[in-house]
Every structure is written in C-alpha cells, then in structure tokens.
Amino acid sequence: MARAAPTFGQKLSFIFFITLGSLILYIDITSNNFQSIKNGFKSFKISSFYIAKEISIEPLKSILSHSKSKSQLVMENKNLREALELSYLNNYLISKENIFFKDKEIIKKAYNENKYKFEYDIAYLKSIDPNMYKCCDQHRMFIEIRQNTDNSYVESIVFNTEGLVGQIIGESKFYEVLLLTDISHSLPIKLNSSEFFCNAKGSGRSGYIICTYNPLVWTKEVKENQIFYTSGLGGIYPKDIEVGYVSSIEAVDSTQTNIEIKLLANPLNGNVFGVLSY
C-alpha cells in the first residue's frame, strides 16, 4: 500500500537541505565568498556559447555568405562580359578603319562631332551544337533578339565581334541563323581589286568556305593569303565586308579550281551578336 505522507527521514532531509541552502545564501550575501565561483560559471557559460557558435553557426553563415558572394561575382562577371562584347560590336561597326566604311551607302549613319551611330539590333545566343558545327554539313544556330518589335529579321545578316557569321532564315520562338559554313549557304565574294568574283559555298567544315571557278574564264591569278570581301551582288550581304583569306588553292582539272577561304569570324566565340538589315 502506498504511503500517504512523507516519513520522518524524508522530512529531516528536506529540513536539512532547506537549512543548508539558506546558510549558503546568507554567507553569499554577507561575505561574497562565492563571487569567484559565480564569475567562473558565467565565464564558462560565455565561453561555451562562443565555442558552440563558432563550431555550428559561424561555419553555416560563412558558407551562405560565400555562396551569395560567389553568385554575385558570377552575375557581375556575366554582365561585364556582355558589356564588353557589346563594346566590341560597336567598335566593329564604328571604327573608321573597318571595311563597313568602304561603301558609304551600307548603313544609315548620323554624324555628330566625329561620332557615328548605326542602326542594328542586339541578339543573344540561345543554342548551337558545337559537335554538329565541327563535324557535319548542316551548320545552324538560334538567337534571341533583345528588342521586342514587329520587325521581320528574315534575311538580316548576323555578325559578332570578329565579323560575319551568317544570315537569318527563319523565325519561330527564336531566330534560326544559316551559318556561312553550311553547305546550303552561298556567298558572293570578290577580291579587293574587284577583278575576281565567285560564289563561295559552305564547306561543311568549321571555319572554311569554298570558292570554285573556271580558270579558263577567270584568268586573274589568285594567291594564298589574299583577302576576300563580300561583293554585294546577292542582295543579302552589304558590299565590301571582309570575309576571310585564301588558305589553299587546288586545281581539280583544267576547268575547275577550288579556293579554300579561312573565315575571320567563329560563331562559337561569344554569346552576343549584332543583327543588321541591309
């Protein structure tokens, strides 16, 4: 059967501990003998809290801060890279040494205190298959034009900071660009002297187009490293834009000679492009 009341021993123990606690409290109030113990306990609490914080909270804060600063740095680098590419595009068109200035009718320009302004739009790369570009006959890429307008960009030329890369051939969600190296692409080109013209076809190889001509018809000698320019005869590309240089010449037979032209521009270099209607 359970006891209903405490025993004499339990009462005695209770009185003893009450008396002992009161005595300790009295001594502490009157003499401060326990002050060092209290200070040591407070110091232990503070040290324990600091150590626990350094071990648990601070590493998490450091990781979050580092992650945040890293993402900010990545974003800043991206913005700086795009700004630099835009600057290069502007310089490509604005430079008075650039081939665009050979034909004064190519681009509408405003002249004000030696500063030129051009009408072109900015586009960003959405997709390109580098493996397809380096191995196969069909070379395409897709771009998104920054401006939200109702303009039709089909047949507009596309260039990057190095030069011409192709022309827009279709639009749906993004604009499809037919690259110069696609085997279905044809580009009327000429030497700077305007004494030699031919239609350069895409070679299906990255960085090269092929110009085929009959040496019995065109007797003008073509040499390696000579520079070819757009002739303006196709109605798509403006006249006198530098395209590339002769890398090799192959005489197939008496009626056919192939000129391999190394292009100046690589569409894989950069994510920002200019779009220009001519």
Automatic annotation (TrEMBL):
Keywords: Membrane, Transmembrane, Transmembrane helix
InterPro entries linked to this entry: Cell/Rod_MreC_2, MreC, MreC_beta-barrel_core
Gene3D superfamilies: Rod shape-determining protein MreC, domain 2 (2.40.10.350)
Keyword Cell membrane attributed: no
Highest taxon of source: Bacteria
Domain Rod shape-determining protein MreC beta-barrel core: 153-267
Pfam families: MreC
Biological processes annotated in GO: regulation of cell shape
GO cellular component: plasma membrane
Signal peptide: none
Residues spanning the membrane: 12-29
Name of protein: Rod shape-determining protein MreC
Record organism: SAR86 cluster bacterium
High-level lineage: Bacteria, Pseudomonadati, Pseudomonadota, Gammaproteobacteria, SAR86 cluster
